[in-house]
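Checklist before submission:
- one chain only
- standard amino acids only
- sequence pasted in full

Submission:
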Amino acid sequence: MSEMNSAAEAAAPHRYTAAMAADIEARWQDTWEAEGTYEAPNPSGDLAGDAAVAARPKKFVMDMFPYPSGAGLHVGHPLGYIATDVFARHQRMTGHNVLHTLGFDAFGLPAEQYAVQTGTHPRVSTEANIKNMQRQLRRLGLGHDTRRSFATIDPDYYKWTQWIFLQIFNSWYDDNAQQARPIEELVAQFESGEREVPGGGAWSALSAVERAEVLGQYRLAYASDAPVNWCPGLGTVLANEEVTADGRSERGNFPVFKAKLRQWNMRITAYADRLLDDLDALDWPEAIKLQQRNWIGRSEGARLDFAVDGDDSARITVFTTRPDTLFGATYMVLAPEHGLIDSIVPAEWPEGVKKAWTGGAATPAEAVAAYRKQAQTKSDVERQTEHKDKTGVFTGAYALNPVTGKRIPVFVADYVLMGYGTGAIMAVPGQDERDWEFAEAFELPIIRTVQPPEGWEGEAFTGQGPAINSSNDEISLDGLGVAEAKAKITEWLVAKGIGEATINFRLRDWLFSRQRYWGEPFPIVYDEDGVAHALPESMLPLELPEVDDYSPRTFDPDDADTQPETPLSRNEDWVNVELDLGDGVKRYRRETNTMPNWAGSCWYELRYLDPHNTEKLVDPAIEQYWMGPREGQPHGGVDLYVGGAEHAVLHLLYARFWSKVLFDLGHVSSAEPFHKLFNQGMIQAYAFTDSRGVYVPAAEVEEQDGKFFHNGRPVKREYGKMGKSLKNAVTPDEMSAEYGADTLRLYEMAMGPLDVSRPWDTRAVVGQYRLLQRLWRNIVDESTGEVTVVDAEPDEDTLRALHKAIDGVGQDMAGMRFNTAIAKVTELNNHLTKSGGAVSRSVAEKLVLLVAPLAPHIAEELWHKLGHADSVVHQDFPVADPAYVVDESVTCVVQIKGKVKARLEVSPSISDEELEALALGDESVVAALGGAGIRKVIVRAPKLVNIVPA
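Returned file contents:
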C-alpha cells in the first residue's frame, strides 16, 4: 500500500493531501496572526482601528465560555466554535464589523481537585490547560480577535468581577421605581423619615450593628444563615447539582446533610418579574424560555396567617394558590428547617396524642430533633419524589384554622421545603395528592372542598368543580367555581387582617458562597462587631493569597454537626489585616469564602468589548456600539450567542440578573446580555464495554456480522457522549493530522442540522476530504502545481449552477444551515468536475469565496494562487444574478372547464400571447376540445391557462 501511495505522490506531487493541508494551514494561521486579520476595531479606545471598518454594521458573535480541561478537546467540543467561526466569516464578507473572540472560564472545582491530589498550584495547571486549548483551537483556523482574549483568573479581570459584586452589595431594589438604586439613597430615606425604619424608631438611634442588619434586609448582595448541602466527608458545601438523588456527593459518594451556614446571597428574586417579562423580546429557543419561566415559577395566590393555639405571639404564615380550599385544611406541615419550630414545640406531649404521631420519642423536642437529623441526609430531589412513603412527626403544637376555628395539628415533614413559599403549608388532603397520602399515613381528617365527579373515591381530587363544605357564619363559598371562590375568600381574609393577595415565585435567592480556594475572593472585610464593609475600589483586585494546603478540612462523614474550614482561613496574615477604610486604621477580618464559578461568566461579554480598560468596567461608547439597544433588539445584547442547552437556567439566568443591575445603575445601556441564543446539538459516539462492564478503546473494536469484538472477545455497544473515560474520544489533533483542519471543519458542519445531536463516524470524514481534493483539482494541476483556470466566459449551464449555489449558500449561511450550504457547494464543485475542461476564472474565484467561511485555509491558498494579494477573509461574498437563479422552465397547467388537460414546460419569461398560442396548439388540448369553439382564454403566464369552451 505504501508503494502505491508513493507512486501516486510521484505522479501527482501537487495533489491536496494531509501533508499539504498541514503546511497550508500552519502558514496561513501564522500570516493571519501576524497581520491581525481578525482584529475588530472599536469606535474609540485603545482597540480603535480602521474607521471605515468601524463604520460598518456591527455583529457581535459569542461562544459560551469554555473551561480549560486537562484532558484537552475531543472533536465534540469545537462543534459550536466552528459554527460561530463560519457564521462570523460570512458576516465579515457581507460588510459587517465582526467581534468574535474567546476567553476562558478558569476558576472552579476541577483545578482545585487536581491541586489537592498533586500539590500543584491551580494557576499552574489551569494556565497549562489554557495553552493547550489555545493551540488546539488555533489549529482549527478560528478567526478570533486574540487581543480581546482573557481568563477569569487574571487579576485584571477579576478586579472587575469584585467591583461588580460591590455594586450589587451597595444597591437595593426600589419596588416603586422597579429598579436597583444605590444603598446611600435608602439610607437617606431612613435618615429623613421618608421611609419608616423596620421595627420603628429613628435611624440615628440605631447602632452600627443594627443599621447593618436593617440594610442587610434590602441589599442585593447580603449575608444570611442559609440552608446548604454540607458534606463533612469532603469538607465543603456542595451545589444541588453536585448531590445525587439519594443524598450523597457525586464525588466520593459521601453523605450530604442540610445545614445552616452564614452565606452570601444575591437577591435575584427582586428581579423575578423583569426576568420573566423581558424573555418575550429575546430571540431564544422557546424551550429555553419555557425552562426559565418554569424555574422562576410565578404563581398568584394568597398569603395568610394561622395563629398558634396557646401562643398569642406566634403565627404560621403560608402561601397558597388555592385559598378557596381553606375550609378543608385539617393539619399543617412545616419544613424541618423552619425557624418557628423550636419556639412552638411544648415540653410534653398533649393528652391523647396518637402514638404514630410521636415517632416513639418521649417528648416533642426529642421527636423533632430526631426527625430533623434524619431529614438532613436527604436531598431536595429525594424529598420531593412522588409516591415515596410520607414521613413526619407531630410538633406537639396546634394551629387554629381561621375559617373554621378548629385546632389542627402542626407536623414537621420533609416533603415541604424551605426553598419554596414560606416553608409551611396548610394541608388540604381532599384536594392535594401528597397531603392525602400523608393524611392516610397519620390518620388525619380528610374534608373535600371541591365537588369531585360522581363515583370519585379513595384519592384526592385536584380538578375543577363547585365548592362544597366551605361556609361559616360570615362567609359561604359553596356552589362557587374555583376562580370566584378564590376571589371571595381572599377578599374576606384581607378584610379580617389575616391574609393578602400576593404573587409568589419558585425562584430562590442565589447562594453565592463557596468554601473553596480556587475562586474570586470577596472584597469584603468584617470589623470587630461583625459588620461587613466593602473594600474601596483602590484596593481592588483583592488577589488570592498563597496557602499551604488546598484541601478543605474533612470530617467524620456521618457527623452532620461539624462546620467547614476554608483553605483561605488558614492564612492568618491575609485574613487578619489593618486597613484604613476612611475612618482611620482599624483591625478587620477578611471573608474567607470565595465566589462560585458562575461569577466570572456573568459579565464576560462586556470584557470582550474593552479588555484592557483599567479605569472603567467598559467604555460607555464602546458598550453602546457593540451591545446597545437597536431596532429589533429593544434590550440590546450580543447578536449571536451559541452554546449547549444545559446552561438554560443557571448561567443564563445569573448573567441576565447581573446585566439588569448594571443597567439600572447606569453602567451599561443593554438590559439583557444575549439577544439571540442558539443551542447547538452534541456530537455523540459509540462506546464499548466488555463482560466486566469496563470500557475498551472504541478504535480497537471490530464489527463482524453485526456483532462487536475487542481482541477477539465480544463487547457490548452503547451510544451517547464522547469522552476520555468512555475510551471513545477522538481528538481534533488526530483528525487534523490525518486529513487537515479544513476537512474536520467541513465534516462537523456537514453532519446534520447544527441544533441536532449527531453521531461521529471517522470513516465518513473522508467524504469532505475528497470534496477539497476535487476543489483543488478544479483549479490547480496536480502534476505541475500551476493554476489551470481560463479567462473564457462560462456556458449558461455553469452560470445557472454557479448563481443558484451563490443564492442558496448565502441564505444557508445567514440561517446557520451549514450542512445544506456544504451540499450546495458540493453540487457546484461536482458540476465543474463533470463538465470537463478548464474552469472559468470568474467561476473559480466565486467558488473559492463560497468555500472561504467553511474551509478558510484552502480558500486563502487558492485565492492567492488565483493572483490576489489581499486576504480572502475580507472579500465581498458573491451576489447571485437573479436572472440565473430562476428555474430554466416552469410547469404550466392547462385547464378546460376547470379540469387539467395538459402540462407544458415553458420559459419563466414567456408572454401571455406566446403561452396562449402554445396551449391552444397542444395535441391534448385540441383533442379535449373536440372541435368546440372557444368562448374565453384566461392566461396567467407562466403557470396557468384556463380555456372556457363556447
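Reviewer check: The first strand starts at residue 58 and ends at 63.
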